[in-house]
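Researcher: First entry.
Model:
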Amino acid sequence: RLYLDEMVDVWRAAADAVGERISVLGYFPDGRAQTVSGRRELATLPEGPLAGRTVALLLETLLSDAVRIVRAKANRIGAIDAITADLFHSIVGTLEQQRRLMRAPAS
């Protein structure tokens, strides 16, 4: 449970960094739950209690999907805005590290 709390803290920090970058670029980030959930590109977790191994496998899959999505966005924006692309690549590195750590309990 503590490790999951740490993962969420990292995701929140990444979201804050992206929001700050959006502001720097002159736009207004909309972090309301309704807006974020309406634009999500990741699958949702099933409701109810889940076994630890199941959680690890689901999170590994979600992290893999997140890496793919953020990497694609970083590659698309790279020609337009190198600073934002660098931020996204940094986030990809963090997600990949978390995915590696999730693989240990899942295997």
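Researcher: Second entry.
Model:
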Amino acid sequence: WIVCCGGPAWGAVAGRVVAAGSRAPIAGARVRLQAQDDPLALSDADGRFTLPVEFGGTAVITAGVAYDCAAAVNYTTNGVFARNGASDVLIELEPMPEEDNDAYVPI
């Protein structure tokens, strides 16, 4: 017998979410496939995550932390390309500016 399946295989993408520049780990970041609600993984105290995925080839993996006005630092979201099965994905989040930009004009 020959068994064949035509769909993408289940796997996982693993890595770390860190602050850009300092590379300090970011705990509690929500990691997911771009534009998808599920599956979802949260980064641990070391910034590490493992996201179960079902895709073939390469996809964009995103990370973000919910904005908290009481937090000392908030971060922008970011995404990186990753292959199913990758275990060394590094997602760097930039800190948000601490001051308002008075020159900003929305388009």
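Model: Note on the second entry: The mean pLDDT is 87.
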